[in-house]
Design goal:
Length: 243
């Protein structure tokens, strides 16, 4: 158990470049004191650098600044972790759940216990994460891998969804404008979300507050199409019309 946690801690620091002990404790679901003990061990092993309450990756000359998915993981990290924890309560054994390729859904995937579920996703990172769960049936959209976004595109979605009854679609987006329209930046990403919104019995939008009153390039749908919005510190029912 400790060895697995150490490995996961190093992977997190490699992905994010640097994290506070509080952030690591939240992501690993352990106490900050446990993180501090782990970091002392890992620093002696030459796997991380500890500095002023933070853990930093050892610079081996690799530049990850061109990876949009890694950049999204770092953005609003605490908010996304909180939102993912809240969304977890919606998922129960036996469900068919669809997840998009957002970083917030990746956080959620990491939290999923190994219970009987069917998960449908276009995310390469979520496929990698949930491949470790023996009881989760994992269905990838397939298609062409967009490496920078860790996302499959040009997938035969209609063919996949003929045989699937989606109980819950969980996704994020680039923004929700003042009129309640949902927006994204890429047409192939918006297409996936638009289709899943139409085909799912319920849907949840995971979004941090920085994305409210924001417009982007491609329309996904409307707030009335969503069952609930989950943001930092609260879940919002669309019946109230409030965020």
């Amino acid at each position: 158990m400790k060895a697995e946690r150490h490995q996961e801690l190093v992977q997190l620091v490699e992905q994010y470049n640097n994290l506070t002990t509080q952030q690591l404790a939240q992501l690993l679901d352990v106490s900050q004191e446990t993180v501090r003990r782990d970091l002392r061990v890992l620093q002696k092993q030459g796997k991380v650098v500890r500095q002023h309450g933070r853990a930093k990756r050892i610079n081996r000359g690799a530049d990850e600044s061109s990876d949009p998915f890694t950049a999204r993981l770092k953005s609003h990290l605490n908010s996304k972790a909180d939102i993912a924890h809240r969304a977890l309560a919606w998922i129960v054994p036996g469900m068919v759940v669809a997840l998009d390729a957002s970083s917030t859904c990746w956080y959620l995937a990491r939290l999923l216990p190994d219970i009987p579920l069917t998960v449908f996703t276009n995310s390469e990172r979520i496929c990698h994460e949930l491949g470790k769960r023996e009881q989760i049936q994992l269905i990838s959209t397939g298609g062409v891998l967009q490496r920078k976004d860790a996302c499959y595109i040009k997938a035969p979605l209609a063919a996949h969804l003929k045989s699937l009854e989606i109980d819950l679609f969980v996704f994020s987006c680039e923004g929700v404008d003042s009129n309640g329209t949902l927006w994204d930046t890429r047409s192939w990403n918006a297409e996936y979300k638009t289709l899943l919104l139409k085909r799912s019995a319920q849907s949840i939008l995971l979004i941090d507050k920085s994305k409210f009153d924001r417009v982007s390039d491609v329309r996904i749908g409307e707030r009335v199409d969503i069952t609930e919005i989950i943001t930092e510190g609260e879940a919002t029912s669309l019946a109230t019309g409030k965020v």
